[in-house]
Design goal:
The protein is α/β, with parallel strands linked by helices. The protein folds into two domains: 253 residues, P-loop containing nucleotide triphosphate hydrolases (Rossmann fold, 3-Layer(aba) Sandwich), CATH 3.40.50.300; 53 residues. Helices cover 41% and strands 24% of the residues. It contains ten helices and 14 strands. α3 runs parallel beside α5 and α9 packs antiparallel against α10. The longest helix has 24 residues.
């Protein structure tokens, strides 16, 4: 298979396993801490199809990460069922779930979980070692995966020697090491600048549409959502809307609080939030709570994100 995504080449024969349909039915998750009970999911029913990329949006605490953890077998539901292809996850033993996560799910996190003492190539090899792939095959496949994400020339660099965007692309290569049918990405662009974020989203979209994987992304970022096939809106543990980016713009949907918001309004709200964050960073720097150099760097990142969002708004005629 050949093609490109975000400047990365998809190598012939690198991915052989297509995505599978994932369906959750009446999914409930309750966390208990002593007498305290938190209901993170309240009867969620949804499906995710192979060859598509779906974004799950919602405020912090809405249940987005919990949903991904249940689909990926990281956690078990309190109630309901999870159908992963023809396999029901809630009936698997702990050992079977461990194997399922290793072979069938690629996880990409907001906090980039690379092993700092390993090079990029060694990080990519690690899941293959756990899966029992022979050393000769591991080395060649790791380099192919790094080539697929445009980082073959950084194979022997340690994470601290890579930019944030490069680290996230290595993390994607790690997630793809065992050719999983399903890719789950939890806020994968949250700490990235505009160009790096666009490259990551382009690559994830190509894995869905070009390679046929099932890709689910949680995000607060309209720049991510607008590039996906479908948006699922989650709020207070419930799905309150499902639509395409075009449907959201053409027919505003109720997103909570009884109000309707178009995609342009979501973008404007994100811009306002970033502008407010710039003010908080400036005030913290003036009080000496964070170093001036770090504050300046963060402000530049936020301004770049605002610029990109304003360009997106302009393209929508907003």
């Amino acid at each position: 298979m050949s093609g490109s995504a975000g400047g990365a080449a998809i190598v012939e024969g690198l991915f052989e396993r297509r995505g599978v349909r994932v369906e959750v039915r009446d999914l409930v998750k309750i966390y208990r801490r002593g007498r305290l009970e938190v209901q993170a999911l309240r009867g969620v029913t949804a499906s995710f199809e192979p060859g598509t990329i779906t974004s799950v949006m919602g405020p912090s605490g809405s249940g987005k990460t919990t949903l991904l953890n249940l689909i990926g077998g990281v956690d078990r539901p309190t109630g309901g069922s999870i159908l992963f292809g023809d396999q029901r996850l809630e009936v698997l033993s702990d050992e079977e779930l461990d194997r399922h996560r290793l072979l069938n799910v690629g996880f990409i996190f907001q906090s980039i979980n690379l092993v700092p003492s390993l090079t990029a190539r060694e990080n990519v090899e690690l899941p293959m070692i756990l899966a029992g792939l022979p050393a000769g095959e591991r080395a060649g496949r790791a380099l192919q995966l790094l080539r697929a994400v445009g980082l073959e020339d950084r194979a022997d660099h340690y994470p601290e020697e890579l930019s944030g965007g490069e680290q996230q692309r290595v993390a994607i290569a790690v997630a793809l090491a065992n050719d999983p049918p399903v890719i789950l990405a939890d806020e994968p662009t949250a700490e990235l600048d505009y160009e790096a974020a666009r490259g990551v989203v382009d690559l994830l979209a190509h894995l869905a549409r070009g390679v046929g994987k099932t890709v689910v992304v949680t995000t607060h970022d309209p720049r991510v959502a607008v590039r996906t096939d479908r948006i699922v809106r989650l709020e207070d543990g419930r799905i309150i809307g499902e639509y395409t980016p075009l449907e959201l713009e053409a027919h505003p949907q109720p997103l909570g609080g009884g109000e309707s918001h178009s995609l342009a309004e979501l973008v404007r709200a994100r811009i306002a939030a970033l502008e407010a964050e710039i003010e908080r960073v400036e005030e913290a720097a003036m009080r000496g709570e964070i170093p001036l150099r770090r504050a300046a760097r963060r402000i530049v990142e936020l301004e770049e994100s605002i610029r990109a969002l304003k360009e997106l708004l302009s393209s929508m005629g907003g």
